[in-house]
UniProtKB/TrEMBL annotation:
Belongs to the TsaE family. This is tRNA threonylcarbamoyladenosine biosynthesis protein TsaE. NCBIfam families: T6A_YjeE. GO terms for cellular component: cytoplasm.
């Protein structure tokens, strides 16, 4: 359902926060070390909610938050899971790729799953391939997710 192999028009309706989290969880279960997920969508679209689900699917320690002054957080794998850490980046305040590339992270990105909020157009260069999830906030407040693999 969330493969996106039909192109960017594979749209999934997410009526509530729990649906967005479940969508992220399902995606998270498919991810491996070195995978990059790029999230786009306006303020309050549900990007962080999706990451909360990703963390559940990937079985890493929480909590997933979006604090004002922290650009990247690293979440350690939980025992019993696939053993891959999650690096959660919020690129909202970053000026561009140079700043993103300069983040002094402890984790080797090829050994982690990296998810970047506000990453479209910038973060794709962090890895050879990526999964782009575009979240739209419809007028009726339902979120619509479109997944494209690039
Ligand atoms: N279908 C939905 N999916 C996700 N969030 C929803 C949905 N319906 C309502 N919400 C609410 O919208 C808000 C989404 O917040 P969230 O922090 O996940 O968005 P965001 O895209 O990360 O925002 P920001 O751009 O500030 O980082 C939450 O308060 C959440 O409960
Ligand atoms: Mg957010």
């Amino acid at each position: 359902m969330i493969t996106g192999e039909d192109g960017p028009d594979t749209a999934v309706e997410l009526p509530g926060t729990a649906d967005t989290e479940a969508f992220g969880e399902e995606l998270g279960r498919t991810l491996h070390a070195g995978d990059l997920v790029v999230l786009s969508g306006p303020l309050g679209a549900g990007k962080t909610a999706l990451v909360r689900g990703l963390a559940r699917g990937l079985q890493v320690a929480g909590p997933i938050t979006s604090p004002t002054f922290v650009i990247a957080r690293e979440h350690a794998p939980l025992p019993g899971g696939p053993g891959v850490p999650l690096v959660h980046v919020d690129a909202y305040r970053l000026g561009g790729f140079a700043e993103l590339d300069d983040l002094d992270l402890d984790t080797d990105l090829t050994e982690a799953v990296v998810v970047v909020e506000w990453g479209e157009g910038v973060a794709e260069r962090l890895a050879e391939h990526h999964v782009l999830v575009q979240l739209e906030r419809r007028e009726d407040d339902v979120r619509v997710a479109r997944v494209t693999r690039g």
